[in-house]
Description:
This protein has two domains: 7-104, DNA polymerase, domain 1 (Orthogonal Bundle), CATH 1.10.150; 120-234, Orthogonal Bundle (hpI Integrase, Chain A). The protein is mainly α. It is globular, with a radius of gyration of 20 Å. The protein has helices at residues 7-22, 27-46, 57-69, 74-93, 120-130, 134-146, 150-154, 189-201, 221-234; strands at residues 161-163, 169-174, 183-186. A three-stranded antiparallel sheet has the order 1-2-3, with no helix packed on it. Keywords: DNA integration, DNA recombination, DNA-binding.
Amino acid sequence: MGAINNPNFEEKRSKFIGDLRSKGRSEATVIAYAKDIEQLLNFFSKEGCTTIEDTSIEDLEKYKQSLQDNNYTPKSISRKINSTRTFYRYLIDNSIISDNPSEKLSHPKFETKPPRVLTEMEYRALRDVSRIDIRLYSIVEVLLQTGIRIGELAALSLEDIRKSKDGKIDYLYIKAAGSHPFRKVPLNKSAKKAIDDYLEVRPETEDDTLFVTKNGRPLLVRNIRTAIDKVMVLA
């Protein structure tokens, strides 16, 4: 994670991240929040804000406009607004600020399209093209064979790969999140093999997130989406 020059801002971001971890949020989620809030606070610094207590809805609107000016998609801006609101709620809950300007910050409008069902040919092509990379193939195979959400896949840890008494992979344990309860997701033979193959080449790291980068850091939702979009073009 990057640094924030303003010590006042950095202290509050660090405590916010610590609060997320204490609540059991996945490392991928924590990293995503940390990057979003780092971007927000660095923007405030450039605008001359010195304390979070002095920020206003006008400052947040300027931040939102800067994202639009830098060609962020409405969906990405909406996600960053959610991160901002979570950060400000933390500040309110811990009596760091008395007013929450983020409540007045509106989301950009964007069209939510229903998921498109792959044709049988697209399904086969996607699997074939993704075989060029063991990690990517494992990701694609798990998504196709189980139907879990990309966010759920990104949040998987090594301990969520549950095994039977003989030591072989049995099923995925999907943790509860928001209004979604925990559940056990069965794996077919091809998904189990794809995970096994990936685990053999997974980089050694202290992080227990299942899917990680070459440097051992959690693979974020946006990284996964980008990788899948690239192979969809080739498929």
